[in-house]
Amino acid sequence: MEDYRGRNRDTRRRARHRRAIRNRIILTVLLLILLVVAVVLGKKFLDGDFNKKENTTFPAGTTAPAEGGDNTGESSQPETTAGAVTDQGTALTQAAALAASYDYDGAIDLLKSVSGYESNSEITAAISGYEETKKSLVAADITQIPHIFFHSLIVDTDKAFGSEKADAYNQVMTTVDEFDQIMQQMYEKGYVLVKIHDMASKQDGEMKKGTILLPAGKKPFVLSVDDVSYYEYMKGHGFANRIVIGEDGYPTCEMDMDDGSVQTGAFDVVPRLEEFIKAHPDFSYKGARGIVALTGYDGILGYRTAPKYGDPSSDSYKAEYASIDVDSEREKAKAVAARMEELGWEFASHSWGHKDMGQATMEHMKTDMQKWLDQVNPLLGGDTDILIFPKGTDIGSWRGYDDNEKYDYLASVGFDYYCNVDSNQPWVQCTSKYLRQGRINADGFEMYYHADKLSQFFDAATVFDKARPTPVKQMG
Ligand SMILES: [Zn+2]
Q1: 134 alpha carbon to ligand 1 midpoint, in Å?
Q2: If you measure from the C-alpha of residue 86 to the centroid of ligand 1, how many angstroms do you get, rounded to a whole number?
Q3: Which band of pLDDT confidence, cut at 50, 70 and 90, is reported for residue 9?
């Protein structure tokens, strides 16, 4: 028993000794881990990673609307510049993201900004890979770029096609399901969204064609959405109410539900396209988004920004406007537009009163446009240079705008890009003064009657929403 106890004592002593050694090892390992964490955090802090709240910051001088949750009132922080990227893993990831949207130069520049990149085989391999891809790119023919357009999407087909405006909606609008299928099919066919400013831009006052380089088989196109105002007449007809910036910093929509609540979700083109590009970054060339065409008479983006909402002496004032705070509506609209612009969205004038500019007298056109320039342009940063003709009606023939006084006026107030509706073929006219582009309507009318014209983009027969009344009636 003694021996046994003695052996036990020895065993216990040895065990204590082993435990002490093990504890020291654990403590050392823990200290080492703490040290590594402290070094990494300190480095990240110095690199500015903690200041980089990507996609949730707003440009200086703007704040998110109240709907923006915790973003409200938050001051903006500068994003980390490419030059500050020192972490190789981060640099490779960021470069891959740039290359995914065809910005190979951006990707290469970013990798070359990593200090000592020359001796890092992973980085040099990535750089030569991007250089190789660049050599294989094909320059797009600017004059063959199509432009597809939509109106606000029908979310609730029962409401829209059951309303007194059913025929009009059936003709010129697209449903949420149709839009999703159109984007998917166009993506599968190799279409890539580009900006109209990528097609041509003014340099020293002269319009010059741009260079769009894409991998072989990829096809550039421009997208626009008209009348993103959520007009008063659309209320209760199954559309969104307005665009807001969601808690994630991306545009989304608010919509009235049957139970009286307001739901936030991707109820229109803007948030749906954002989501599609997030899932398919190669659908957008260098961060391109769509063009949003805005009138002014009922406000913009669902905000009641027009003077009539705050002026009881106005002819079009209604008692129900009493609760509207126009100044606050304008501030909210401004913040949403600024964030959209930051994400790559562009804005276009669609006239103030949805006027047919081809028919209008010179005087009426000027009066109408001045209202747009005074009331809407300042909410969009004041630099709008795209004009999307209401009703598709151009101010001139295909021959061009020589000796066209309407053009002279519109050019004098800043418009360089003019878009009509021409659903036959991609149509582009680029002179040293302006770029004109025909637009193709992807709506109920075109899908029902001209599926053949749309077949280069998508299969209208499979996309056409079964909830649509047929035949689609043609309105005036
Ligand atoms: Zn319109």
Answers
A1: 39
A2: 49
A3: very low
- For strand 291-294 and strand 346-349, is the pairing parallel, antiparallel, or unpaired? parallel
Query: Is residue 283 pLDDT above 50, yes or no?
Result: yes
Sign of CA dihedral 121, 124, 130, 134: negative
Q: Average pLDDT for residues 194-214, to the nearest whole number?
A: 97
Q: Which residues 6+ apart lie within 8 Å of 185 measured at CB?
A: 457, 458, 459, 463
Task: Compute, in angstroms, the gap from residue 392 CA to the centroid of ligand 1.
Answer: 8
Unique residue bearing structure tokens 């705050």: 310
Taking the centre of ligand 1 as the mean of its atom positions, its distance from the CA of residue 205, in whole angstroms, is 29
Neighbours of ion ligand 1 (CB under 5 A): 226-227, 390
Res 41: pLDDT: 47
How remote is the CA of residue 388 from the centroid of ligand 1, in Å?
A: 8
Tell me the C-alpha distance between 399 and 391, whole Å.
20
Helix ranges (H only) for 343-466 are: 362-375, 405-412, 444-449, 451-454, 460-463
Distance between CA 91 and CA 181 in Å, rounded?
35
Q: Quote the ligand 1 centre to 323 CA distance (angstroms).
A: 28
Question: Cα(295) to centroid of ligand 1, in Å?
Answer: 8
Structure-block tokens of residue 51 = 């200041």
| Ligand 1 center to 207 CA (angstroms) | 26
Question: In whole angstroms, what separates CA 244 from the centre of its chain?
Answer: 13
Q: Is the dihedral of CA 19, 20, 26, 30 positive or negative?
A: positive
Strand duo 242-245 + 435-441: pairing: unpaired
Centre of ligand 1 from the C-alpha of residue 40, in Å? 54
Q: The pTM is what?
A: 0.81
Tell how far the Cα of 263 is from the centroid of ligand 1, in angstroms.
26
Q: Which helix (H) or strand (E) holds 20?
A: helix 2-47
Tell whether the model's pLDDT for residue 469 goes beyond 70. Answer: yes
